[in-house]
Please model this.
Amino acid sequence: MATERVLWGFQTVGALLLLGGLAHAQFVPAPNPPYPFPFSLGSSPVAVVVGNFRAATPSNSPSPLPASTPDLAVANQVQGTVTLILSNGPILSTGAGGYTQGASFQVGKYPSSMAVADFNKDGYPDLVVTNQGDHTITVLLSDPNGWANPPKNIRLGPFTGGVSPDFVVAGDFDGDNKLDLAITNRDTNNVTVLKGDGNGGFTAFPGSPFAVGASPSCIAAADFNGDGNLDLAVSNELDNTVTVLLGDGTGGFKKAIASPFGVGFNPSYIIAADFNGDGIQDLAIANLNSNNVTLLLGTGTGGFKPAAASPFSVGTNPFAMTVGDFNGDSVPDLAVANYGSNNVTVLLGNGTGGFKSGPGSPFAVGTSPRSLALGDFNMDGVTDLVVANSGSGDVSMLLNTFTMTPVMVSAASYSPTAPVAPGSVVSIFGTGLSSLPALAAPIASPLQLPTCLNWIGVAMNDASGVKNIPLPLFYVSSTQIDAQIPQNVATGAATFTVSTSTAPNCVATPPSTSQTSASQKGTVTVATVAPGLFSANGNGKGVASGQFVANLGIGTAVPIASCPATGPCTANPLNVSSGTSILVLYGTGIRNRVNLSDVTVVIGAQTLPAFYAGSSPDAPGADQVNVVLPKSLSGANTVFVTVSIAGTVSNQVTVLIQ
Model:
């Protein structure tokens, strides 16, 4: 069993789980002082990205400053430069911390967009910049000495057939674990795809460039047809369409059936995410001259159809977007930079493909905003925004004042409506749960979990009247606690309290620290079973977490998904032609089932009996369900999977069956 994936994967979910009705999103300008925003650059900033750009701070090594105090990189169109805005750590009462201007680097003429990633695999974040004015991209590589490497300029036209490169996205398009690039070319109506060599160099893939629509403005990369290969979606500004290019896994692309897809007037930006919770990637498109956002729902085969309520009104001339969790309902939300009305619209998703404007939206920023990015800039555990304003020559910072009553959910499904079960693993989401840095319980063999972690404890009062039942803890942070429900907790309505603890056996780093967080209380329903399936990406959706044996008795167990060091996990194709292959699904809330015959697994259109459903070895709270996959599933492609126990159904995950 992949113990680490099951036990520790859910600990770093990242953003707060969005749980409807219990939270709000409200953005306010960062106060100046102490924050130096708006941060004046005076040189037409047109793109901003977030990363850890400080010198001698590799992304795979401990940082001298907390990882949640991100830096900024800003592309300045008129000067042809990229400027770093560096964090000095969180704002402290002593006046320490904040942001200062760092180095500037000369790039090409009229830079328009940037991508941040580790392109030479040295553990340090690098930058790629598109330069519209001289038809090049610039590669900026960082190293232990900071940004000492000279910029590399790679010409796109005429060598690679691209003129006026406007937008760049990074992804592994040929499966060699090296990042490649896809670039929209405004004046040649095509997309250049460059193969990365893993050292910061790039060359054109065979067949590149690939034709799209008129004046391609933006590009997104995701798997739109469930074959495990990255595909591309391109917004075409002058013919009001989106072109979808399906990847073949070798760096080649072809148009999807029915592509292009119609959208609003002059689409300027495109984002891929699962907006309706079906495990399939959808598309959101900002339409510059119809002042709205079109939502196209994916079919899972590379096709798209408009959401029922699409399009959604925003401000004047929406130019750029970003997607994140702003209000806590486990649904992606959108922040839209409106170039013509000098503000940012926040659209809160409802989980079914609908949006509504967030409280207080839109939020004023500088003049002519062109780009925006996400980050936790004040270390309060919630997602804030930075906006590059080309007209006023500055960068705005909007702080999210999100607050939330603590909520306990299954650590596998993250369903806000499902109960939890005795013996299961749960996640508690909130704000201000801990005043100390995040800490995970040490991994021991056999694993023994503390009931006090970083001087925080969680106690439950169950439905039978038993009070102050301590919960074993996996992980504690300011916004998330992962714990196990004790097996002896009674079913029914329960309450829980997160509070400071002075237990003598408390696990804390360093031991002398103390908590200043206040006690918080929440409610939860406990049921005998509450089946939840872990997903490989740790969000309760998409490809399942588990193992696969192609032939019972002689096969070797392989993971259902591949999870690179950076980027999302992707599905591995499963060959079920033997008729005796075994699928092992990892979950929680399953072990208390009464009869094995009560447990069924729905895979695609087939309902199958489980031959094992219970606890997993050496993993507190983790369960597994084993099922034989019949040969008749061959060729099913990406299919949904659920587990049902006497009528109680788990969350939906997916597997890829070849």
User: Anything to note?
Assistant: Helices lie at 3-8. Residues 3-8 form the longest helix (6 residues).
